[in-house]
Amino acid sequence: MDSNDISFLDNVLDIVKAERTDDVPLIRFKHPKELEEILDLDISKGVDDVQLDKCVKQILEYSVKTHKPTFKNQLYGGTDPYGLSGAWIAEAFNTSQYTFEVAPVFTLIEIKILKHVLYLFGIPDGDGIFSPGGSISMFYGLVAARYKAFPEVKRKGIRNLPELVIFTSEDSHYSIQKAAHWLGFGTDNVMRIKTNECGQILINELEIAIQKEQAKGKHPLFINATAGTTVLGAIDDLNAIADVCQKYKIWLHVDACWGGSLILSETYRQKLSGVERADSMSWNPHKMAGAPLQCSIFLVREKNLLHEANSASAQYLFQQDKFYDVNYDTGDKSVQCGRKIDAFKLWMMWKARGDSGLDQLANQTMAVAELCLEIIKNREGFKLVNERLQCPNVCFWYIPKFMRGKNVDEKWWDLVHKITPKIKELLTLSSRLMIAYTPLRHYKNFFRLAFTFHPIANEQQIVEMLNDIEECGEMVTPNML
Amino acid sequence: MDSNDISFLDNVLDIVKAERTDDVPLIRFKHPKELEEILDLDISKGVDDVQLDKCVKQILEYSVKTHKPTFKNQLYGGTDPYGLSGAWIAEAFNTSQYTFEVAPVFTLIEIKILKHVLYLFGIPDGDGIFSPGGSISMFYGLVAARYKAFPEVKRKGIRNLPELVIFTSEDSHYSIQKAAHWLGFGTDNVMRIKTNECGQILINELEIAIQKEQAKGKHPLFINATAGTTVLGAIDDLNAIADVCQKYKIWLHVDACWGGSLILSETYRQKLSGVERADSMSWNPHKMAGAPLQCSIFLVREKNLLHEANSASAQYLFQQDKFYDVNYDTGDKSVQCGRKIDAFKLWMMWKARGDSGLDQLANQTMAVAELCLEIIKNREGFKLVNERLQCPNVCFWYIPKFMRGKNVDEKWWDLVHKITPKIKELLTLSSRLMIAYTPLRHYKNFFRLAFTFHPIANEQQIVEMLNDIEECGEMVTPNML
Fold first, then answer.
1. Complex ipTM above 0.90?
2. Where does the source fall among the domains of life (chains A, B) (predicted)?
3. Which chain A residues touch B109 with a CB distance below 8 Å?
4. Residue B293 to residue B74: CA distance in whole angstroms
5. Does B49 touch chain A (CB under 8 A)?
């Protein structure tokens, strides 16, 4: 096929549409070895378009339909169809976001979106960048904080600096561990502070930990507050943490990758109160808000810091003798060289819906989660992990009939711990529901239902999910475990 | 629009097709401020589908058509239409590549592709991962090397290690500087070794530098060899560097982001001889081979190293009590958490074309570059930077008539330095050609034409590009500079 012959894209549209009909199952689970047997994945010999079409259809048959309301396995799900449209255009226009000359409009769009998002989060004079995911956004925060405190780190490295310490809650995202390794801090320098039952960092424990590290002669550099923990959806007390940061002169980063979408709701954005005091923060519109993967935003309060910290001034790319205003060549702020135009899909969603449309979706999402919480609270056999809704996460156990009314001791909990994944297995194998489960701290394996903008679940769908959990839960017998 | 209503995708297909007709210009350049005036980018208020369609069309009108043969501004260009089909499917299926359960087929496809690519590069027992771009792939290499030499770095950080030194050529990609900063080495510990005229690292200079750093008590950790430098397309003598690495026990990384696509050609792959001795390497199929942005592969010789170095064992995601073989949950090898299924678009290209189809495209690309070199060598007014073709990069100056036959002194070269960007400006403003220019070492600003698989240029197109350069070159007068 010639480079300009994009006729196969017609097939793609048809294939995608066919896979979105209601009767297509969520998942046709096969074990890895079985799947390897079924599929023709060999690439050494080429095939014609008819054969390729057949192969692709088979691949998609066995792929998970993440757009279905029964896909509740992760903190993302269906995509906003406008966002998907933007993603397709971005792919078709194959553009790297580093210089104005190759990405004139997309550069302006990124600037526009960032300005609006900075304004919403109450950091109107800040700066930002789109990054390939929340983990890399966390890296950006740590690099910015370290550079601000010790600008010589860029040339001299971390070796001659004091021992730098990072504080985060025990419920926070694991990417901070990967960042501590990669960026040279070492994971031993990540202090994981205890949380309360709801998953919020304990402020007094945080302060004690800071004092302890200072007493050891270490330098507290960075506090990572979380607005929406991965499992419980906890939002740390951002104002209290900001006070601590101010008192001890520590950088405040807010990981709002999950909960940041609540900023879109006029009703619920007060849950993020204090975020406007952050030195840096991250938000992933590809999670709750349904932008196609990946769409992650890193924001920083100090205007020129991203450029100062990250620029390498490559002369083949960021020439200063260009014929236009090179302040619009924004790529040297990035740790990447080539960079996808992730801002465009978010722009499409926002342009189509406006602030008010997104506000409505955020409110609906929270309303559905509240409804789900209420239903579970009152339904026999279901037990909530906690009753307070922070983000649209609802966490609970299913207790099969044979276990109810029994003595709730360690052995009983050990059984729950084994039953939860078994129920998940049955739900998956029967294609009823893909749901997340995990242990957390002293909590044994439980389920997490997290709701997103797309698709908005309704009451009937929630009840069906719970019915399915109950049905599969009642299939579990002790000798299966 | 409801989440399941993907009707706007029909518009997208039409819009994309309309923007690919021959009479659509490469670029309608406007300066940033002018463009801001023209476009309606405001997102605070939503618009209906008709208005959105209009806005999108206007955005695309002013966007660069990177699929045109006259887009020669970067090391990427048009996309493989099969790759684009794969990218669209990947977006529509919105899947993160971390666990088998959410990405069953895509996981197997990534494994399949990596195995094939490892085999091609002569590292059949190695491991690999898709990363968001060549810069991050470079980070992976440095992290792997450091962890292999000092596994305690993961917990303890870089602070208690000896001073680690990195070696690279002066023509190598700037991402190594960003990596040195982010990863805590410091850019002062990047030793930039001189190259020969063709852009290849000088082996004796490299060895002298290693000895010098050792004498200072520093630890030479990592040599970055380049297979396809950004500007000249130089391929370092990989075997000679591998010998040095062996002698001094230093990690060999090969940055083959650009030149790695030559592995697809049975004829030209010998240019990469020695790459099979690398400890790690990177290749960006999104550059020469035309996979849509981004598609970058990092490979490492030691099988379990990626997992050991990068794993954080998040219990909510990589549970060990799942009902399937969790060895297929490959995400903990990655520095990212959510990760796009970039392997799929490459799989589509490869499945459609097979090894032989890609071999043919690579050969055609090199043939076009050779032809271009020959034409330029023999054309008056054009002066090659060097006559040796390594990758399909052709670098040259245009010397306007008024400068020919004059005394070639520093002043003459200063004028060339100013003329080159002026010609580029005229080419861009008239939408004839977008071409890269840069200075390099002692070379004053020159042009780079780099050829890619899509679209394959023909002789007529090459001659037209050179005619356009000549015409614009003759418009330049000294008082314009």
1. yes
2. Eukaryota
3. 41, 59
4. 12
5. yes
Q: Say which amino acid occupies A276.
A: E
Mean pLDDT of B149-160: 97
- DSSP-assigned states of every residue in B332-347: GGSS-SS---THHHHH
- Strands B71-72 and A443-450, by their bridges, are unpaired
Backbone angles phi, psi at B227, to 5 degrees: -110, 85
Using alpha carbons, list the distances in angstroms from residue A184 to B146, B153, B156, B252: 10, 7, 8, 21
Residue B310 CA to chain centroid, in angstroms? 24
Interface with A, mutate which of B230, B337, B454 (most A CBs under 10 A): B337
Collapse the DSSP code of B138 into the 3-class scheme (helix H, G, I; strand E, B; otherwise coil) and give the result. helix
Q: Which two tokens stand for residue B451?
A: 């050829």
Average pLDDT over residues B454-464: 95
Residue with tokens 């793609």, as numbered in its chain:
A12
Contact A133 B339 (CB under 8 A): yes
Rounded-to-integer distance, Cα A274 and Cα A243, Å: 10
Backbone angles phi, psi at B18, to 5 degrees: -65, -35
A88 neighbourhood in chain B, CB within 8 Å: 9, 12, 16, 88, 91
d(CA B422, CA B427): 9
Per-residue CA distances from A297 to A127, A354, B295 (Å): 10, 19, 21
For residues A52-91, one letter each, b for 16 or more C-beta atoms within 10 angstroms of the residue's C-beta and e for the rest, the string is bbebbeebbebbbbbbbbbbbbbbbbbbbbbbbbbbbbbb
Residue with tokens 């342009």: A351
Residues B149 and B325 sit within 8 Å (Cβ to Cβ): no
Chain A closest-CA separation from residue B337 CA (Å): 6
Task: Output the six-digit token pair for A414.
Answer: 């050990």
Distance CA A300, CA A279 (A): 6
Residues B30 and B38 sit within 8 Å (Cβ to Cβ): yes
Report which of B186, B185, B192 is spatially closest to residue B168, judged by C-alpha positions: B192
> Collapsing DSSP states into helix, strand and coil, what is residue A193?
strand
For residue B89, which amino acid is it? I
State whether residue A442 is helix, strand or coil. Answer: coil
Residue-wise burial string across A129-157, b where 16 or more C-beta atoms lie within 10 A, e elsewhere? bbbbbbbbbbbbbbbbbbbbbbeebbebb
Q: Which two tokens stand for residue A64?
A: 């998970």
pLDDT in tens, A208-262: 999 999 999 999 999 999 999 999 999 999 999 999 999 999 999 999 999 999 9
Q: What is the pLDDT of residues A410-430, one digit of tens each?
A: 999 999 999 999 999 999 999
Q: Is the pTM of this model over 0.80?
A: yes
